[in-house]
Specification:
42% of the residues lie in helices and 14% in strands. By secondary structure, the chain is of the alpha/beta class. It folds into 3 domains: 33-284, Type I PLP-dependent aspartate aminotransferase-like (Major domain) (Aspartate Aminotransferase, domain 2, 3-Layer(aba) Sandwich); 288-393, Aspartate Aminotransferase, domain 1; 400-466, no CATH class. The chain starts with a helix and ends in a 7-residue tail after the last helix. This is Glutamate or tyrosine decarboxylase. Pfam families: Pyridoxal_deC.
Length: 473
Amino acid sequence: MTDVLARLAAMQAGDLPAHGGRTLAYVYDSGLAEVDRVGREAVAAYAGSNGLDPTAFPSLLQMENDLVGFAARLLEAPDTVVGSVTSGGTESVLLAVQTARDAHPEVTAPTMVIASSAHSAFRKAAHYFGVRAVEVPCGADLRADATAMAAAIDDSTVLVVASAPSYAHGVVDPVTEIAAAAAAAGVRCHVDACIGGWVLPYATRIGRRVAPWTFAVDGVTSISLDLHKYGYAPKGTSLLLHRTPALRRPQFFASADWPGYTMLNSTMQSTRSGGPTAGAWAVVQSIGDAGYEKLAREVFEATDRIVSGIAEVPGLRVLTRPDSTLVTIVTDTSCDPFTVCDEMAERGWYVQPQLTYGDLPANIHLSISAATLAHVDDFLAAIAASVEVAVASGPVQLDPGVAAYVAGLDPVSLSEEDFDGLLAAAGLLGGGDLALPTRMADINALLDVASPALREAVLLAFLDRLSRPSTNF
């Protein structure tokens, strides 16, 4: 048994650190070791419990209702609000779209209106559920264009979406105007607050200006918010809240017309471990309302100091002033953002590259945690040093012929051999074997000249080749 745990620890040593405030994507760290311990122990205590049947495990139902009640207060919800615990933001988004679709069976070709900045989970929902996404470009301020979104609503629209904030740029959409347009058309309005839902209410409380986005806004019918982001809970917990039980009802699924037990589900999952719910409940109980306010003060102080510090680094600027805790950094022509990301990794920081999209340049994305505050000076020193190296190295040089060839490829016409060639050219396939390179600048530069459709195809081919049976287990 000890050997197995030692092997797990050895494998995990190659992963990004989940704690320490230096991984600025994928994980969110309160910096509270005791809270993390309580969360882990609660997950372990309920790992074998099953959320499938609330009559069998009523403690899980109690915890779920407690979490929804806490969130309802944060979101200025009416007394009629109801909610469900899900496995994450994507499942919350999927359920919001599925529920809107199923509320209108008379609409045979349903659509939803989203801004170009809406999270890709909505595009995934469109793919899964046959709800066509009508995508509206953002305005110059990178927020959803409320006028354009209103104009895009028609008789096929079952859902209109706003973000609080958008992931890519960290800004809150004009929810008041978007929700009003949706309500005027008799259409649901969902606010994706998976990132901001557990921190923006405290931002308002401590005196920061945030545009209205909660259930206090007329016309908002549902909101998603993640506990495993700024709720600082263990991974695997999000919430989806609906303004009324009637709005939520199409989310539920029941099946009695078969020889087995009657299947009754509130979310997309049937069997689901009670561990994540218990872990989230334990963390929220441990931190409490006052604790979350303190963590909000810390994460916004870290955000403000990083934004101010970036302005002092030659070659860098913040793309837009963030409304929340997400920061997007762009470089000037003297400096390659992908090289900066690699250099930051060399210095013990993970920052996330975002590729070119339309007129928006490739950039560096930060999801800042409360635990980052203690390390802001180190972060600013590391990014200044990384920029110096990137400037000295110059931009990544792609062969012009290769760049033109890649830019002109049609992924639909490519064979498996073509994909292997592209993976090899990107440095992801060497000697016939998949490789996980430690430096990604050349790979990202190559992907950056490809169309979004080709990026998707190449990375899907890479994922397919990564996900193959092991022979040494």
